[in-house]
Amino acid sequence: MTNPQINIAGNINATDFLVLHVKGSAPTDPETRYGNGTIDARPHTYQNIGAYATNGGTIKVAGTAQSTDVTDYKNDKSLIYGIGALADGNGSHIEMEKVSVVSGASGALFAKNGGVIEYKDGNILHQNNKVLGNGDITSSSSTYRAFLGTTPRKGMDANSPTDNDHENISPFYVYRGNNDSKAAIIFSGDNKIDMYDGILLTGNAYGSIKPGDSTDREWDYANSAWEKWYNRTTKMFIKKC
Predict the structure, then answer these.
(1) pTM, 2 dp
(2) SS3 category, 214
(3) Which of 17, 108, 139, 201 could be bridged to 101 by S-S, CB 3.0 to 4.6 A?
């Protein structure tokens, strides 16, 4: 991208630290979960947007180190809780490199109305953010996962054991309305997805078109993309955790 309107060279971090991570003022004070004054704010967590381009806006974010730990609020690495990138409108273009995302209820990457996202060398965690009990959300112990840290991240209160904000959510989604053939998400480099909940790929079933569907061949595109990922020609590794 040449001369983006917003150009960030360095790491970005938006992990709801003030709400989800509370620690006493003394160096020896332990970190506590959900301190005083955070209860009303917790339902609004995991809603950050790392980069939002609209009406032809252009943004480039080039991080220096993508996160591999869901608690990297304490380290100098790029991590977003919510949507990593959202591009809306013709000419809206986001380039994002070495930025990891813990997706919210709207997924990690979203392009629509001609907007384009280029995502390179990032990690995505797609997992339910709601939990009962003390708020701890643990990760798989698999050695293949993208996020290798062992410290639990903090989640939102669940209303029941089956409450899941990722139940029908895809980690990335392109919405092409009428006469839109440009909206796209382009992956390059080495990207990894830890897939716990939701839908990996979605498209039209057997040519059945619904409002908002890209084209009558969207399902074919999804299948083709899956085959490429499976053969690793795009260097994307997807792990069902």
Answers:
(1) 0.80
(2) coil
(3) 108
